[in-house]
Amino acid sequence: QSALTQPASVSGPPGQSITISCTGTSSDVGVYNSVSWYQQHPGKAPKLMIYDVTKRPSGVSNRFSGSKSGNTVSLTISGLQAEDEADYYCTSYTSGTTVVFGGGTKLTVL
Amino acid sequence: QVQLQQSGPGLVKPSQTLSLTCAISGDSVSSKSAAWNWIRQSPSRGLEWLGRTYYRSKWYNDYAVSVRSRITITPDTSKNQFSLQLNSVTPEDTAVYYCVRDPRITSAVTFDYWGQGTLVTVSS
Fold it and tell me: Of B47, B110, B115, which is closest to A101 when you measure between CB atoms?
């Protein structure tokens, strides 16, 4: 299974909005709404931020939102804060009952 | 509050078997809604899902194609835990290994609780 494609890095100043894209295929993102986003700070386990493309778990800030168009899903973070600086990963269910991750995007808050 | 506590050796010799255990508190390995996963992370391979076990009147397993010939995930209902065995390891299997809960098997990727991670190094 090929990894989902994410930009290696994105950046923005505090208060701005940024969007991280995640592109898959018609075997994963394009046909399933089982897509999640994870935030990972150095030395920590990933944290679930978005599931089912657009849903936020309890306790996750509403500054985080998800969307989907065709074979691409996106994570938008509005009102950037210093603590948002982290690595972000997308993941999707795929045909064949498996799971595929994106390569990760490093977010820098300038 | 769900907690996952991992245990197992941090060093494994090439060609031997990697074995890790994940003890569950706050939920049951026999839950009829959750699935119990192993995921690893390395600089070269990023995050990689390895497989899962879950109970729906009987036990099921799903494994990643990349490790399907070498992996076994086993539940232990008496101890409320599940285990990972990866055979014939090579240095490419060096990674941080996580046990992870998905509360809804229907989603397959809603990983809400993670173990603390175990760095496993494959080296002689």
Answer: B47
For chain B, list residues whose CB is within 8 angstroms of any CB belonging to chain A.
46-49, 62, 64-66, 98, 106-112, 114-117
pLDDT (tens, 9 = 90+) of chain B, 124 residues, equals 999 999 999 999 999 999 999 999 999 999 999 999 999 999 988 999 999 999 999 999 999 999 999 999 999 999 999 999 999 999 999 999 999 999 987 778 899 999 999 999 999 9
Chain A residue closest in CA terms to B96: A45
Opening angle at CA B36, ends A44 and B3, nearest 5: 50
**Cβ-Cβ contacts under 8 Å, A93 against chain B:** 107-109
> Helix or strand or coil: residue B104?
coil
Name every residue whose Cβ is closer than 8 Å to that of residue A49 and which is 6 or more positions away in sequence: A36, A37, A38, A39, A56, A57, A60, A64, A75, A88
- Closest CA in chain B for residue A1: B65
* Closest in A45, A92, A104 to B114, CB measured: A45
pLDDT digits (tens, 9 = 90+) for A28-46: 999 999 999 999 999 999 9
What would the two tokens of residue A49 be? Answer: 């931020």
For residue A84, give the 3-state DSSP assignment: helix
